[in-house]
Specification:
By secondary structure, the protein is an alpha/beta fold. The strands form 5 sheets. The chain has a 4-stranded mixed beta sheet with strand order 1-16-2-3, with no helix packed on it. Strands 4-5-6 form a 3-stranded mixed beta sheet, covered by helices on one side. It has a 3-stranded mixed beta sheet with strand order 7-8-9, covered by helices on one side. Helix 6 links the parallel strand 11 and strand 12. The longest helix has 15 residues. The mean pLDDT is 97.
Length: 292
């Protein structure tokens, strides 16, 4: 077996997470921030803590090393979605610049944690470039798909290519639609979740034809999330190992299709920690190292 940072589907060996008592802090903090950050409604802090404990137990299924982003008064409740502030590569972390203004301080906060933990840093996306981690997904060890969205702009993608091309990594740009506009949480991983090297969960109605064709040419079989399970985050699926999937409860059709494809599916109740803030299980984790 080989270990790499450049996979979405290998067995997770190490991962960073940020728990609600370190991100949401309290009901008072949630009440102060949720509306300005475009949450659907205010999460209930106690329920969020209980949901997260169940979610964390699923992440621990294969005994990875888990590290924690700490409470930081420079960042918002959105920091629970810790994937977005950085990108893991075998050459080191890439520190992002956020497209959502309310999350502007998160990259510097995670940089400080990585430096304290002696995690190598490859580089940073510099303003006016923006890249968010939810817009990037490894298709294989040498191919990174990047969504061009309201959160990740052309300049950010240019800088990403400048860092990764010399490492022999192909960056595939995916032009995503306007959909609900700049205020919505719409990332590449809203419509794409690889769950094995040849299997991905997708929402094709919002997927560019060229990119969908690219996935098929690369040998992917596609699990098509039905319309009625898109808003309930059926397409946001975390692979903790090949075909071992964590999903938000309430997506029975997607779950059944995953199981039919040979996947083991673990569900968690995510109304408070996922649905209200628009961040599913992939968003709640920053995987570092995976075994492939």
């Amino acid at each position: 077996m080989k270990s790499t940072c450049q996979s979405e589907v290998g067995k997770i060996k190490s991962v960073f997470i940020k728990r609600p008592w370190e991100a949401f802090i309290s009901d008072k903090m949630l009440a102060t921030e949720w509306e300005a950050l475009n949450f659907l409604s205010k999460p209930d802090f106690e329920k969020a803590v209980n949901e997260y404990k169940a979610f964390e137990n699923l992440v621990r299924k294969n005994d990875p090393v888990i590290q924690f982003f700490p409470e930081d008064n420079t960042v918002s409740i959105d920091s629970i979605y810790c994937r977005d502030a950085s990108l893991a590569t075998d050459a080191g972390m890439i520190i992002c610049t956020m497209g959502k203004p309310g999350r502007a301080n998160e990259p510097e906060a995670v940089r400080k944690v990585y430096e304290k933990q002696h995690v190598k840093i490859l580089g940073s996306i510099q303003s006016p470039g923006t890249v968010e981690g939810g817009d990037v997904a490894w298709l294989n060890e040498k191919t990174l798909a990047v969504g061009h969205t309201y959160r990740t702009n052309e300049e950010g993608i240019r800088q990403l290519k400048a860092m990764l091309t010399p490492l022999g990594i192909q960056v595939v740009t995916v032009q995503l639609p306007h959909y609900k506009g700049p205020s919505d949480v719409f990332h590449l991983m809203s419509i794409l979740s690889p769950v094995d090297h040849d299997l991905a969960v997708v929402y094709s109605p919002l997927m560019p034809i060229a990119f969908r064709t690219e996935l098929l040419v690369r040998g992917y079989s596609l699990i098509e999330v039905p319309d009625e399970e898109f808003d309930s985050m059926g397409c946001n699926v975390l692979a903790i190992a090949p075909r071992q999937c964590v999903i938000v409860a309430g997506n029975p059709k997607t779950k059944k299709m995953l199981e039919h494809a040979g996947c083991t599916v673990f569900e968690y109740q995510g109304s408070e920690i996922s649905v209200k803030g628009g961040g599913g299980p992939t968003c709640l984790t920053r995987p570092m190292l995976r075994e492939i």
